[in-house]
Description:
The complex is a heterodimer.
Chain A: E1 5-9, E2 11-12, E3 15-16, H1 18-34, E4 38-43, H2 47-56, E5 61-65, H3 75-89, E6 93-97, H4 100-112, E7 117-121, E8 123-127, E9 130-137, E10 142-148, E11 153-157, E12 176-177, E13 190-195, E14 208-212, H5 230-251, E15 255-258, H6 260-264, E16 285-289, H7 295-301, E17 306-311, E18 324-327, H8 330-344
Helix pairs in contact in A: 3-4, 5-8
Chain B: E1 2-6, E2 9-11, E3 18-20, E4 23-25, E5 31-33, H1 35-51, E6 54-60, H2 66-75, E7 79-83, H3 93-107, E8 112-116, H4 127-135, E9 139-150, E10 155-162, E11 165-172, E12 175-179, H5 191-199, E13 204-205, H6 207-210, E14 219-226, E15 235-236, H7 242-255
Parallel strand pairs in B: 1-6, 1-8, 6-7, 7-13, 8-12, 9-12
Antiparallel strand pairs in B: 2-5, 3-4, 9-10, 10-11
Amino acid sequence: MSxxxxxxxxxxxxxxxxxxxxxxxAGLILAEKLGGxxxxxxxxxxxxxxxxxxxxxxxxxxxxxxxxxxxxxxxxPYTSLLTGLAKEASPEVIIxxxxxxxxxxxxxxxxxxxxxxxxxxxxxxxxxxxxxxTRPVYAGKLFAKAYCEANPQLITTRVxxxxxxxxxxxxxxxxxxxxxxxxxxQIPSKVMGYTQATGGVSLSDAGVIVSGGRGVSNNxxxxxxxxxxxxxAEIWKAQEGxxxxxxxxxxxxxxxxxxxxxxxxxxxxxxxxxGQTGKVVSxxxxxxxxxxxxxxxxAGMRTSKVIVAINKDPEAPIFRMARFGVxxxxxxxxxxxxxxxxxxxxx
Amino acid sequence: xxxxxxxxQVPDSAAKVVVEDGKATWGDAPLVINPWDEFAVxxxxxxxEAHGGEVTVVTVGEEAxxxxxxxxxxxxxxxxxxxxDLALVGADSQAVARVLAAAIQKMGExxxxxxxxxxxxGDMGVTSIQTGRALGWPVLSLVSVISNLDxxxxxxxxxxxxxxxxxxxETKLPAVVNVVKDIGEPRYPSFMGIRKASRATxxxxxxxxxGIEAPASAVKWPELENAPVREVQTEMISGDSPQEIADKLxxxxxxxxxx
Lengths: 347, 259
Ligand SMILES: Cc1cc2nc3c(=O)[nH]c(=O)nc-3n(C[C@H](O)[C@H](O)[C@H](O)COP(=O)(O)OP(=O)(O)OC[C@H]3O[C@@H](n4cnc5c(N)ncnc54)[C@H](O)[C@@H]3O)c2cc1C
Ligand SMILES: Nc1ncnc2c1ncn2[C@@H]1O[C@H](COP(=O)(O)O)[C@@H](O)[C@H]1O
């Protein structure tokens, strides 16, 4: 049974996280070099529904598990299933996407399987039959090469770093069902529910991100509703400012990001923070509005393909990494830019 | 409640880190407690204040990492332990996790262990999860809210930040928790706290004290290099009106073919 390269397809309720196709893409490239194909694993409610999709994306074998104990992701039953299968079949490499789940499972699996984990890798090559990965360290200031002496070599691929496996409708196969290894009474955690997701495009896999910083809060043309104290008025103004940022993101089909200063001041929830203590993103286009470009902010966005900076201070460090810069008032430039794109993109 | 916090010492987030002779260097930038771990210390102190008990802070590192422990003591932790052993030079995350697990076991009767989400030097984000697994305890990662903690009933309920929103999970103690920023802004060390920390004697435990051999490390790091310099030629866009600037900028962005 099974190939020497395994890829975990992270899926929720019958929809694969897009980063899973990148992990599979990375696995297929390795398989080409090491010989053989890719065995893919899909766990959770409605896992079988995407098995066909996984075959079309190039896996030669699909192992899936769907069981009430796996309905919601929980680290323990998911990892134990993965490592139980791996103990039987001894794959050489297991690749997971660096989603919250993928990182967690890879980390735990390293303990179960007495091996090492190399999370968040941006490149892989083969040397002497081992996978040598590249991973950014020190917030991307340095790049480290790493390899794992034991098998399976556990790797998680950084989101948007590998080409997605392409689907070919001509490919198909029959998935093999595998059984969970933990009964409900052995699983310590219970999922009690979910609170509202923040909606919109998720930051980590967005192709376009428009971000706002402290600068979005000081539009002198606005007068806040009566009865607000100074702090409330500041937040109200900032939220008006973020509407402009959000409008531009909406026109471009992108997500809204923010600096820590904007998050700490209460302008926007933490989920939007980009940077060292927020999310690390790598979109094709990153537009920074009213963000100075502190080193900790850069840590989260420096690998964006095209960076655009709109800032009224010509000395702002963000300009040094920008492909295009506008020295000006974001309250004029950002709405004008939304309008310009609306015209050009026929919206 | 017996609470442990695991912290690491790292170069300051603003440090200019470069490679010299194959090693990471940061000039005279200070070494500080990992910023994520300040949130973990805060979370531990909040739970201690609510439920009573003690908080012990622990790190695996060199003698110099006592400074990170002192920061945590100054914030309000009661005890600190340094785990240090020459055999741990070059240890990978999984080996460090096994050492932390052994140290936590030696402390005995621990209910809850707090970690930061990730250390900003190696950016691994796995040590907490691996320590929990090595202990055989449930792991709650990316926790933004502790909504209920019942030391008598030995249960904890949290909200975890995931891609799809917040997952509400309940689990049994003892457990391992790694926290994200939403858990609450870390407090500043008090003047009294700083004085107390500067006088504290911090015990050092060797692997022998833990009763273990150095766990094998599987991951090797053969090469370190500076990140490739971002080659950008910045083009400043100007014009007589916001519309003119916006039109030019939109055309330029479209010409980059990233949309
Ligand atoms: C441990 C640590 C971790 C950190 N992590 C992060 C992180 O994850 N993410 C992060 O972003 N930061 C982080 N920071 C904070 C970082 O150092 C900066 O303080 C922060 O990024 C500044 O945010 P800002 O650019 O919005 O604000 P500022 O630096 O105040 O910049 C605001 C900018 O807006 C411009 N501006 C004002 N009004 C206008 C206008 N009308 N039109 C156009 N431009 C205008 C100003 O010229 C200025 O450049 C961290 C710091 C530390 C110490
Ligand atoms: N050497 C260490 N000693 C104690 N705690 C550590 C150590 N390394 C990492 N940690 C903890 O594990 C978390 C994640 O670290 P990492 O997996 O290295 O990103 C950190 O935020 C710390 O809480």
